[in-house]
Amino acid sequence: MALPAFSVHQPAKVREAVELLGELREAAAVYMGGTELLLLMKLGLAGPSHLVDCKRIEELRRLEVDGDRLSIGAAVSHRQVELSPMVRDHLPALAELETRIANVRVRNIGTLCGNLCFAEPHSDPATLLIALDAEMEIASAAGLRRLPLEDFIVGPLQTALEPGELVTRVLVPLPGPRARIRSGRLAFRERPAVNLALVMSEGGIRVAVGAAGPRPVRSREAESILAERGLGGVEDAADRAAVAADPRTDLDGSVEFKAHLVRVLLRRAVEAA
Ligand SMILES: Cc1cc2nc3c(=O)[nH]c(=O)nc-3n(C[C@H](O)[C@H](O)[C@H](O)COP(=O)(O)OP(=O)(O)OC[C@H]3O[C@@H](n4cnc5c(N)ncnc54)[C@H](O)[C@@H]3O)c2cc1C
Question: What integer is the mean pLDDT of 45-57?
Answer without folding.
Answer: 92
